[in-house]
Amino acid sequence: MRREDFTDVGYRVEPGGVAVVTIDRPRRMNAFRGRTVDELISAFKYAWADGEVAAVVLTASGDRAFCAGGDVKERAETGGYGETEWGTFEVERLHRIIRDIPKPVIAAVNGVAVGGGHVLHVLCDLSIAAEHATFGQAGPRVGSFDAGFGSAYLARVIGEKRARQMWFLLETVDAATAERWGLVNAVVPAGELLDTALAWGRTIASYSPTAIRFLKHSFNADSDHMAGLSNLAFAGLDLYAHSEEGMEGAKAFAEKRPPDFTRFRRS
Ligand SMILES: CC(C)(COP(=O)(O)OP(=O)(O)OC[C@H]1O[C@@H](n2cnc3c(N)ncnc32)[C@H](O)[C@@H]1OP(=O)(O)O)[C@@H](O)C(=O)NCCC(=O)NCCSC(=O)c1cc(O)c2ccccc2c1O
Prior knowledge:
Order of helices and strands: EEHEEHHEEHEEHHHEHEHHHH
Structural class: alpha/beta
CATH superfamily: 2-enoyl-CoA Hydratase, Chain A, domain 1
CATH topology: 2-enoyl-CoA Hydratase, Chain A, domain 1
Strand order of the largest sheet: 1-2-3-5-7-10
Distance between the termini: 47 Å
Number of helices: 12
CATH architecture: Alpha-Beta Complex
Bound molecules: ligand LTTK3YTO
């Protein structure tokens, strides 16, 4: 998709070789629909192809949310995430391009990062949080799960116990705790977030791009088997999300009521 046609995502290149990709759906807490994912993938392709770009900052509009994951209202209304360029919802491809682009990606987390939005920052090479940012998973409440990078790589980053705590209790983690857990690299005042991310990007841009490229691939190599796990997980999610149990979670969110999963318990 051409960037002139973007509606959900902003893309610009700042002086010093840093591309800034901005999720721009603040009225939905920057939740993504299919089109948003298509545009994010295209934005990362622009950054990949541009020889002037040495690092990418991923952030979002406003100060409330980085990304609230999949657009649950869209899903509750239509059963899916809306129209896409190829008719497919390409979140897995987005995960892959954040990992595969041979330039470091820095998440500038400007608010809530939850569900699939939390997974996006986890996949970034570096994360900087605003002091008010919060972090969490939501899938088991709204009829979803990310049992690929969203669970396995999260456990790699913060450890098994904490990853299980995030997915099983769905508690919100504040920025100070996130830093203590190693979930983010730094916490800064909200007014300094973007400048800090740009400064980190420019620092990276001052180093050898070939060395940085090899290092990123090297860091990825040991966890790349999780891509296979991710294929399995998203195939399962596709079946589950459309099921009665999966849809109960999405409908409950849209109707502003607690979900009732009791009838789906099994031995
Ligand atoms: C994000 C919140 C914690 C914020 O809570 P807060 O109290 O600050 O604000 P509100 O709840 O009043 O929200 C303001 C406004 O935004 C709307 N909104 C919030 N999140 C979403 C969302 N995800 N989708 C659509 N709209 C959203 C909210 O309804 C309000 O609108 P009003 O009109 O009422 O003003 C809290 O809002 C929250 O917990 N949100 C839901 C988080 C969530 O469940 N996310 C989805 C998880 S599942 C997922 O991300 C996912 C990812 C994938 O990659 C998938 C891939 C393939 C299939 C499925 C996938 C999938 O489901």
